[in-house]
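Write out this protein's structure.
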Amino acid sequence: MGADEPLQHERDRAGPAPPGGLLDLLSVAAIVLDTRGRIVFWSPQAEEVFGYTAKEALGQYAAMLVRSEHRDLVTRLFAEVMNTGASWAGAFPIRHKDGSTRLVEFRNMRLLDDLGDTYALGIAADRTTLQQVETDLALSQRLVSQAPIGIALLDTDLRYMLINPALERINGIPAVDHIGKHPRDILTFLDLDTIESAMRHVLLTGTPVIDQYTVGRTPADPDHDHAWSVSYFRVEGSSGRVIGVANSVVDVSERHQATTEADRARRRLSVIADASARVGTTLEVEHTAKELVDVAVPDLADVATVDVLDDVLAFRPTTPSHEPGPEMFRALAVAAAYPTDATAAALAVGDLATYGADRLITRCVHTGQPIVVAHADRDDLQHIARDAQAAATFAHAGVHSYLAVPLIARNEVLGVLDLLRARNPLPFDEDDVLLAGEIAARAAVAIDNARWHQSVRNTAETLQRSLLPGQPPPLTGLDVASRYQPALATQEVGGDWYDVIPLAGDKTALVVGDVMGNGIDAAATMGRLRTATCAFADLDLEPDEVLYHLDKITRGLEHYIATCIYAVYDPHDHRCRIANAGHLPPVLDAADGHRRLLDLPTGAPLGVGGVPFHTASFELRPGDRLILYTDGLVETRHHPIDDRLDTLLSTLDEPRRPLEETCDWLLHALRHPDDHDDVALLIAEARRVPPAPE
């Protein structure tokens, strides 16, 4: 049995109705008089109206109910009804059993039985009760008809029984066209399944539904969405019989619009706050672009890409033209809210593509203005995608709306943030343009900062690498391997360096140093110190003397200071002479597996002055290794340096690798992606020197 079938069954069932209807509410009394005016029938309700029981009234003349001054009038009216058959209606004062006078509404008419005898039937109701009911009905009718909110009454089969003028205006359909029809026959634009389900639930349970939100359109305004607050409650008679369900409808479109605007504003602030926190956390162009698309998806778009002009990335000057032509873009980032073929139609990260002047992305960078295609058809997609195949893929993926926002920093257009919607059914609107413009503006500055930083950093790194030594010539009794690893792109390069200098007598000088500071100035200072070191090494000076002269030079280089290790190895006596200027201690990794930090006089950094340097000596036998490094290999911001030096030694506990592999292993094991300093690493391994021929 369906949800509303019990109610339908009750409505169609034949039989007596339970008390509590309108007649019971009015307590309508029935009295029958014979031709002499005697009471021959007396209904139970007559006792309520007149106060006399049937036993007291039957057989008595009706005049007992009338005050003496009205008896002549009553006699005349009774005779007129009996003689002519005409009915009489009106209000008349009667004498109640308790002695009071009450005004009673009468309907009098003549009756004729099957024997031809005549009687008088009087139907009576208390006038006060009748007036109250009339007032209530009139008030109800006025309230319903004049109410500013829509009101409807539907029967238990959910067919309209009544609607007021306000609901007639809301629905845009005449009231007469509602009567006898279901809501789904009238309001085809709304979610009727939800509406009728709520009504049936109210009919069955009697539990009202209050302030249910409904958004949609009606024939009154088919081009715009409206919002209504709808309430449903069950209507019952005085006996509890279910009459139907009433619903009230209040147009709350303005409130809904205000709420929607507030939600949009909150969403906009949330996205902007998210962009402020997440975009520009590094000084890497590609990473910043990825942060931007990750913020845009899925709150703003289903697919987002960042494409930057290749000339801008390469710092190539652009030539203004009165007729802008095609532009070459490099894809920096792509993100999607879900797996979709649309990402395959976009450029892969790092790819280059030339877009003609008819493409919207090209027009966006030429004009420096956002371009929005709220409803993109197949022709529009031809001007959005890079080629016809990509346009077909966009169409197949359901792309229906497009927004391009220029990335502008310091009055220069860098590229475009492209946004696509497919599953999101809403087209891009002006609010979306403003929001995309906000986050694009913030991201553009971060991208511009990153590209400038990257350019300066690349210049400094190029300078630094050019100042470092190339492949050393064959050395007597010594094999070497070296690495230079710059810091992350978020940091400028430093002044770390190493050198391998062949000396007379088959000796070799090994140098590792670190100019404190970073950037091009530090790299240039490093180059000057390296050149000076090579010059002093050729003089065959003791290591402490070389550091002494380097200290004098460094003191003349303004505010720069540097740490340095200088060692000279003689393969013929397997002795290594070494001096330290404020640098971390080298590691001696002996061939027998024993390894230790060399305990050397530390000395002061170069450029401090006034502190003498000392030369120490130790044996470096064939198979022994000397490991020189800068602090970027071991120092972190979260660990004591002694702990890190112990970690360096334990890392070397691994099975011994070839020199080149050892360099890579140490960098991999000790360096963290967030490390912020350069590293110079030099490993020298002593080997046997063949005896000189006699």
